[in-house]
């Protein structure tokens, strides 16, 4: 069984004019009309928000929405890159339910958005005979050389999540940091130490404390986003080579 999120209606195509105010993007559709779309991504979107690139938008005709279009993906040189950071959470939940993540196979019960830590909600809580497994999910859209890297901007919230996962492990449960890569290139995952050295250090501390770090690719297309293969990780390249 495949885990995939299928778009219920064909995505609108267009060309990105600009992203601005973080959560908005102007797009010229193939019809010639210019629309403002919601940009569901709080990061910098470095190397996946280039004006002039083809983009795909979903449409949500809810009268309560000021902007009915949502920016889902952008076509870069290597292929489509998903920019909607909410997609990986639902996709990871499906993959866990379908037994597509070997590390999660012993946990038949999957819940989403469960309160834990200090004013936080865990993306996935898996429960089964071994006990509980707390999973934080992050979307990765930044590529650099042969690697995909995270984060693409300084993230104090992301560092807080790592600290809370570490406390979960200290209390006797399992915890995992699951990175879902929404772009086709990149043979290895690395923390973006040059962008946020505190997060890179925090990720290594969490891993040393027992937080499991997993990286999987999502295959992105205008028809669907599908769970893909596991990607190797190299968390300690900075220490080994002496380079950021």
Overall description:
By secondary structure, this protein is α+β, with helices and mostly antiparallel strands. The protein has two domains: 4-82, Beta Barrel (OB fold (Dihydrolipoamide Acetyltransferase, E2P)), CATH 2.40.50.580; 87-241, Trna Endonuclease, Chain: A, domain 1 (3-Layer(aba) Sandwich), CATH 3.40.1350.60. 18% of the residues lie in helices and 42% in strands. The chain is built from four helices and 16 strands. A hairpin with a 3-residue loop joins strand 8 and strand 9. Helix 2 packs parallel to helix 3. The protein is globular. The relative contact order is 0.15.
What distinguishing features does this structure have?
6-stranded antiparallel β-sheet, 244 residues, Trna Endonuclease, Chain: A, domain 1, OB fold (Dihydrolipoamide Acetyltransferase, E2P), 16 strands, alpha+beta, 7-stranded mixed β-sheet
Low-confidence stretches: 239-244
Main β sheet profile: 7 strands, mixed
SS-derived structural category: alpha+beta
CATH classification class of the largest domain: Alpha Beta
The percentage of residues in β strands lies in: 35-45%
The sequence of SSEs as H and E is EEEEEEEHEEEEEHEEHEEH
How many distinct beta strands?
Answer: 16
- State the domain count: 2
Radius of gyration: 18 Å
Supply the number of helical segments: 4
Could you say what the CATH architecture of the largest domain is?
3-Layer(aba) Sandwich
- Average pLDDT rating: 95
- Could you give the order of strands across the largest sheet? 1-16-15-13-10-9-8
What is the name of the CATH topology of the largest domain? Answer: Trna Endonuclease, Chain: A, domain 1
| Helix amount | 10-25%
Distance from first to last alpha carbon = 40 Å
What would you call the shape?
globular
